Hints:
Order of helices and strands: EEEHEEEEHHE
Distance between the termini: 34 Å
Number of strands: 8
Radius of gyration: 17 Å
Low-confidence stretches: none
Shape: globular
Mean pLDDT: 93
Strand order of the largest sheet: 1-2-3
Amino acid sequence: xxxxxxxxxxxxxxxxxAFELQTxxxxxxxIGAGGCSPTxxxxxxxxxxxxxxxxxxxxxxxxxxxxEVDASTEASRGPSGNTLxxxxxxxxxxxxxxGAGTAARALAPRAAQYSTERTSAIAKAIQAQxxxxxxxx
Length: 137
């Protein structure tokens, strides 16, 4: 398997219950108090990974006029510790009502499946412990 390089981030404490995530290229995201929760970041990483894969396939055929992905999960505490339930992704993809849009729309379900099973390293890592469901609307 060919390596695509190392991805690195740094997390620094920014106050009581707050942290600042810094990416390798200088972007930052607030985590905890006043920012995203770690679970929201996990959902965002998964949704962005799958959206990127779907977009790479469908936008070759037609440009979406809108593209949104919602992600949700149920967190629970049990005797074995904290867990997440199934992660559900809802994909809303609006494509032109022409031949190119129809062709792109036909490719979207397969692109979503291929992403969760093969190309999204994030999805593959999560699925080792938690089921993922993707629904295209």
